[in-house]
Amino acid sequence: MFGRDWLAEYVRGSLWVLPTLSVVVALVVGSALSSVDVGNDCPLAFQGTADDARNLLIGISGTMVTVIALLLGLAVVALQLSSTQYSPRLLSNFLRDRPNQIVLSVFVGTFAYSAAGLYTVGVSSGNRSASFPRLAVSGAIVLVFVSLGLLLFFADHLVHSIQVDAIMRTVERRTLAVIHDRVFTGGGQDASQPPPWAVPIPTRRSGYVQVVHPRVLLDEATRHGVCLRLRYRVGEHTVAGTTLAWVWRPSGAEPAPDVASFTRILDAQVHIGFERTYQQDAAFGIRQLVDVACKALSPAINDPYTAVQAVEHLTVIFCALAGQSLGTHVEQRARGIMVIIPGRRFPEYLAVMCGLIRRYGSHEPTVSHALLRLLHDCALVTAEDSERRAAIEAQARLIVSDAERDVARGEDLELVHAEAEQLRRALAERP
Asked: ∠65-69-74 over CA atoms, to 5°?
């Protein structure tokens, strides 16, 4: 299972996989077309001589090499701009951009198709020949026109993809997909400390927890008659040799579980990678948008409107979170068997997001106003949860307090105070 998960994630984030497959497809298609014999009168057949065909293929191959270098150069520029202007954590979004991978694959495939054709056009058994696969040469011409169209598409797509609105919309969409998948429903009782007879299971590698399959872990726990609790939440960093999880039997009088067996089970069912991914980690998308906001508020950039835009996209995400059951995820069966996966509660998401942006943007009233609007919208859609209402109210007090401390003129805070009053009324109306 995790082999497929790892492979799918690797393929999505690799620039070489699709181009390599395109080379194989191009060679297979070229070989198939070369075996088709069409007469000179066929409208699909290339009408020139063998030398004309070879010169055409040589020209296409040389042009494709130049264009591929141009595409890679433009992609590197886009990556550098995204990293320096917005956040280095956004690089994974560009690497996983499927249109870029497809365009590069078509150009590489066109080069491979044309270069391979030079071994068959005008050559037979190592000697010069007047006969050649005319239909295959026509295929190279078709690929040139397709590549030309994709070159124009790539230029348009690249310009739009590095716009901050498009970047943040992509992050928002991917984060909402993670939230709506409801992999971890939360709401379970958080057994923060395992019992004294629990056996620690060490992690075998350092990295970020990317994927956990609780149902499979529950099946294994049921088979061995034990309970299991992970130490780390999805998205947190682990260090090799430290405790990854605890396992214990429901009764301390029973024999201790086999550490070696559960080390192999956790190694297979808890995927730890070198980077955070969107697979089950909604906090990763939140972190990316917070980074964009904080970078925009830095003295080097000084772009508060971009920070406000980031907060507006965060509002969509937090309103979706407010309607979800969050926290520790518990899978449970009879005889006290359970699997516990710690998760973030709504106040924790809120504190991390509001805290960072509030501290960077407290001197700018528009940022404080945007944060209060986010809290107001969350208060309108959140479930009847006193913990969440208390967290919203606490963050609102901090935002107003920091704004009053760092903004010199009280007149600049009129919108901030007005939004804070509306938020207070919205919270008071909730039962």
From this structure: 150
